[in-house]
Amino acid sequence: VPVAVFASGEGSNAVQLVRKEGVYRVVALVSDRPEAPVVRKFRRLGRAVFARSVRDFPDKAAFEEAILAFLRPFAPRWLVLAGYMRLVGPTLLGAYPWRILNLHPALLPAFPGKDAVGQALAYGVKVTGTTVHLVDQGVDTGPIVAQRPVDVRPTDTPETLAARIKRVEHRLYPAVLSRILREGLVLEGRRVRFLREGE
Ligand code: GRF
């Protein structure tokens, strides 16, 4: 199943998604930061890359139209956000209704938005984690598909905690994506379940 990965930074999760291809294939990378490490990594992997700043376009709708035009020949069935630091607009949401997945480094609905790891440390929670969710028009508000806890240690800095969360994400995200494509998802109100679950 062809999917497209969206990323703005390091791209450690994006690279893991490529490493664990099987049920799905990562046919393209979309980045809003041409100079991001993830862009370099995907070029080296020989994958198709769209790397343009939103500032190169008159507005966000035009930026997202350009992404859709780039993606069209690859026909991705899902858009998989992995550290894509931009709110998805109505153009992409309309083209991929409930077919956009995001990864967030906290147990939503706790600590949405930017710097979720810093927020969790500042609050003093003892457990945080990571969430895979469907993307809607809000910031980290869409229906939750999967979550994994990660303990916060007294000695943690934002860097050590973020790294430990990423290690969990690297296993979780490819596994959840594969399962979605193998089994299918059902959305009942806000509640998501796998089609073959509970049969
Ligand atoms: C991940 O922790 C993800 O949860 C968040 O941003 C981080 C991206 O890291 N959305 P990387 O670019 O995959 O290394």
From TrEMBL:
Q: Name one GO molecular function term.
A: phosphoribosylglycinamide formyltransferase activity
Q: Annotated pathway, please?
A: Purine metabolism; IMP biosynthesis via de novo pathway; N(2)-formyl-N(1)-(5-phospho-D-ribosyl)glycinamide from N(1)-(5-phospho-D-ribosyl)glycinamide (10-formyl THF route): step 1/1
Enzyme type, top EC level? transferase
The signal peptide here is none
- Please provide an example of a Pfam family that matches this protein in its UniProt record: Formyl_trans_N
Note the site residues: Raises pKa of active site His. Answer: 140
Give residues annotated as binding (6R)-10-formyltetrahydrofolate.
60, 85-88, 102
Catalyses: N(1)-(5-phospho-beta-D-ribosyl)glycinamide + (6R)-10-formyltetrahydrofolate = N(2)-formyl-N(1)-(5-phospho-beta-D-ribosyl)glycinamide + (6S)-5,6,7,8-tetrahydrofolate + H(+)
InterPro entries per record: Formyl_transf_N, Formyl_transf_N_sf, GART
Top-level taxonomic group:
Bacteria
Per the Swiss-Prot or TrEMBL record, the active site comprises 104 (proton donor)
- Provide the function of this protein: Catalyzes the transfer of a formyl group from 10-formyltetrahydrofolate to 5-phospho-ribosyl-glycinamide (GAR), producing 5-phospho-ribosyl-N-formylglycinamide (FGAR) and tetrahydrofolate.
Similarity comment text for this entry: Belongs to the GART family.
Query: What is the name of the protein in this document?
Result: Phosphoribosylglycinamide formyltransferase
Q: Which organism is it from?
A: Brockia lithotrophica
